[in-house]
Amino acid sequence: MKKITWVGVATFSLAGLTYFIPQWNVLLAAHDSWWPLAKEFILFSGVTAWMFMTLAMILSLRLPVIEAATGGLDKGFVLHKWSGIIALVAGVMHWLMEIVPKWMAQQGWVTRPAKPRRIDAGAADWPLELASTGQSIAEWAIYVLIILCVVSLVKKIPYSFFRFVHKIFPLVYLSVTFHAITVLAKTTWWLTVSSWIIVILAAIGSIAAFMSLFQRIGKSRKRSATVARIEHNEDMIDVILQTEKPMHFRSGQFAFVRFGNDKEPHPFTIASSPDNPCMLRFVIKALGDDTWRLFTDLRQGDTAEVEGPYGCFDFTSSAKRQIWVAGGIGITPFLSRLTVLAQKGGSVTPIDFWYCGRKGIPEGLKEICHKANVLLHVIDTSRQKRLDKRMLSEAISSGEKVGIWFCGPASFGHSLQRGLKDKSIEFHCDSFSLR
Questions:
Q1: Are 33 and 107 within one domain?
Q2: With contact defined as beta carbons under 8 Å apart, do 98 and 162 qualify?
Q3: How does it sit in the membrane (predicted)?
């Protein structure tokens, strides 16, 4: 099971445990109607929604320990996305179960049981008032959360607008957290361990939210840089950045780069060798408006800001043989690794490198593969059939322990991975989809 699946299952299990500890006796008791069970569903869905919102906030911190737990920042982005979707679904169900039964009672379709009278008439009313305020705030937060998720999932909405709207999420989280804490004030949950779980996670999530609001996430990993060299090659640019401070990285990792006065950074794989941490090479293909503008406007001497390194696509494996597959611009992480191996006199582990592109062999690739002792296979997709799972399977002996590293179009990677179900085969890939 993937690491992010384990993290998701653990989060759901923690939500269930947090709910069941104080409510177990209520669930086991006999009930005359379904109304008390509806209340329990409201509590459970609310805890689940808030727990996954907390997970989304923690993932946004981009901490090394989080990368290790999810298998890389790119996998963390996938989990972040699904945490938002699960939080939205559970939150909407929580909201609907809160208002629909009341509306049905108003219509006379169901009978709502009378609320128990308060015996402690002299007790303070502030917990109830706080809970009511928190509920009103949370209701509006749900509306905003729905809008945020729609903007995040609709790919046709520009990425710049998505990034801008996404910055509102910490405020939504803080609003829902206020609701969660104030609801506890009128329950007996404070007498159980569940209250400690909620308070601790609320503190961590709130810290993450404030760090996001004040743009402190990734601050310690940022480096100022200058464009030292730039080369144009048809629809690609080869950029060398000189950083003020060294950025120690491993081959296959990536960084967020913001050039000049760009409002938002973009992730690019580092194509240079880790031996010189102050000189970072990025090979960027002009695919969208932002990268096309770089292609036409970026000049030597321009400033840049680099944040990183990130990712676990680092060729670390116990496999007896490695197979690399690059599609087009997906060659960049392999360029870094090839440089390292060439400097060391060649790879000891057998490596087959399949490069698939429309324009033949990139300049210098054959030479550096020879120096790195890597067997190169080139497929010109403008004239040949694209590499498929059958061709790749034929290159692997039955039961052979092989590690496959793929970088290229997502659809290409999925088609290869679906055909390689052998447990002895490791499949490594990065996903740069931030939505």
A1: yes
A2: no
A3: Multi-pass membrane protein
